[in-house]
Amino acid sequence: MTLEEKKEIAKDLLAYCDKYESRNVASRTLKKISPSTISTIANGNFEKISDDMFTNIRWQVSIKSGEWNIQETDGMKDMFYALGDAQENRNVTWVTGSAGCGKTMANRAYMMEHKEVYYILCSNDMNKFDFVRELARVIGISSDKNSIREAMDSIIRALGCKESPLLIFDEGDKLSDAILFYFITIYNRLEDKVGIVFTSTDNIKRRMSLGLHYNKQGYQEIYSRIGRKFIDLRLTTNADVYGICAANGIETKADLKEVLKEAEAGDYDLRVVKKAIHKRKIINELQSRPKDGQDEREQVQG
Description:
302 residues, 3 domains, 8% strand, globular, 5-stranded parallel β-sheet
């Protein structure tokens, strides 16, 4: 890892810490990053920190990955608007979009740029304790020695003391019914004090419809609290793909045509677009290299 890369990571780390009351609190929200590590980096003593640790830090606090440049799509703009509206007005929203439309990227970018924003990537295997402990961690609360109820009480108190907190539950449709009920608890105790945004694919619509149809416990409450509707992100367009290409050095008509072809075949999944751009860059690099023996022939001719 180069010195310039380490400086960029250090800059992102300190900006992340500035969003919290102190570096000690910030360190509690990060995995395997101690306050002393943060201090060492803040003091510029990079030689004392391993490349693996810098990589771990970059994964947690940097939105930019390597040479890839993020370009906002229409769907990402919609996501930013929903997040900003929820935080400013302390409301609850469930945003849906197709897989690969940029929901997670937008969520993480918004979190990195705003204070009092707490992001959780949900998963199918989360149990109640995992969920509450993860929520406590991103807020900066130590919950190792607390029961679930005690930890939840600490979370409620901490959020209630903040000016304009926002909770983001990415891939919220993966949470079990039992865990979703905690959302009702948070809402009931912090209504008009905290913004909450769930994001997922539109699979949640069928799950909600079935829950309402069979009058499953909690579904009426959840549906009411999200305003009895889901917010759909705009689909990725050709213009979005062209913008992403331009931001990442793909400019010739031939390259644009190939990337767009793969994007269309992949239902405009942004992961497919990224791989297509990477592929074109590799092809262009290989084609620009001199063939075997070409350098020697040119030298002889010269």
